[in-house]
Amino acid sequence: MKKNLLSLAAGMLLMTTTHAEGWKLDAAHSKIQFKAAYLLISDTEGDFKKFDGTFSSSKADWTDLKTTIAVDVNSINTENEMRDGHLKGDDFFNAEKYPQIKFESTSVKKIGDKQYVLNGNLTIRDVTKQVSLPVVFNGMVKDPWGNTKVGFKSTGKINRKDYGLKYNGAAGTGEAVVGDEVEFIVDLVLIKQ
Question: Which among 4, 66, 177, 187 is least buried, having the fewest CB atoms inside 10 angstroms?
Answer without folding.
Answer: 4
